Amino acid sequence: MQLNNNVTVFILVGLTEDPFRKKMVFVVFLLLYLGTLLSNLLIITTIKTSQALGSPMYFFLFYLSLSDTCLSTCIAPRMIVDTLLKEATISFSECIIQVFASHVFGCLEIFILIIMAVDRYVAICKPLHYMTIMSHQTCVVLVLMAWIGAFVHSSTQICLALSLPFCGPNEIDHYFCDLQPLLKLACSDIYVVNLLLVSNSGAICTVSFIILMVSYIIILRSLKNYSAKGRQKALSTCMSHIMVVILFFVPCIFIYTRPATTFPLDKMIAVFYTIGTPLLNPLIYTLRNAEVKNAMRMLWKKKLVSDRIK
């Protein structure tokens, strides 16, 4: 399919073409990316090393942090380096790989958030059967299904994109390779392909968002049967999840549920869900979760003790 293409290299316009602003973007996004890496890796390390965080919720939180780390890493490092270049270019193959990887980890995050909503529903609405329903084997199967679904989704997107010929122009008005700006460069009718892509990504985002919102409404309604202390704890956990869902899905729905047209606002919205949300997720979960904060303190104390022994 790639043999039909005359284009071998794409030019990424980036967030700005102004030299001074490019330096500002470099500093700001380098700090944001480092913050994303440190915060998510801290959560991953804490969950893996802490026996207190052995419940299914933290098992899924581990994979949410993993998907956040990978999603940001697919995009941020190259974008940061590109700000130092006079003209940022990316080969056709690298562009397709970036599209594939970003959609794999973006879709994985969507499925993990759905699984986490299911976990909270069982924990709050069926507390006596929670450990039976959400056994370790069940959790592993759910995460495996999320990985498979993410790969199927992304593979479908790539196959549709590769079915189009690219013969020029080769300037992508974005800071990374994504399907919407990429489709604009195809030198053939993209109506059917674009409809299939919107039906794929747009449907996944919209339907998943509706399912999540409905599930959390059901969960919040069921809290009236809880004691004041139990209601406060469950409400704190659910509100954290709802904040993550809104921050991630609203920008994605805006981007992926319309035809292959781009607006100036698209780049900033894409920054929010590709770099901003992966940074905010660990802050939301740790600042509103006493168990995670206590586990982090214990991890820090163990490190200090081991350093003193050495």
From TrEMBL:
It is a multi-pass membrane protein. The chain crosses the membrane at residues 24-45, 57-80, 100-118, 139-164, 201-223, 235-256, 268-287. GO terms for molecular function: G protein-coupled receptor activity; olfactory receptor activity. CDD domains: 7tmA_OR4A-like. Keywords: Cell membrane, G-protein coupled receptor, Membrane, Olfaction, Receptor, Sensory transduction, Transducer, Transmembrane, Transmembrane helix. Residues 39-285 form the G-protein coupled receptors family 1 profile domain. InterPro entries: GPCR_Rhodpsn (IPR000276), GPCR_Rhodpsn_7TM (IPR017452), Olfact_rcpt (IPR000725), Olfactory_Receptors (IPR050427). Pfam families: 7tm_4. It is found in: Cell membrane; Membrane. It comes from the Eukaryota. One of its GO terms (cellular component) is plasma membrane. Signal peptide: none annotated. Belongs to the G-protein coupled receptor 1 family. This is Olfactory receptor. It comes from Nannospalax galili (Northern Israeli blind subterranean mole rat). The lineage of its organism: Eukaryota, Metazoa, Chordata, Craniata, Vertebrata. The gene is LOC103729628.
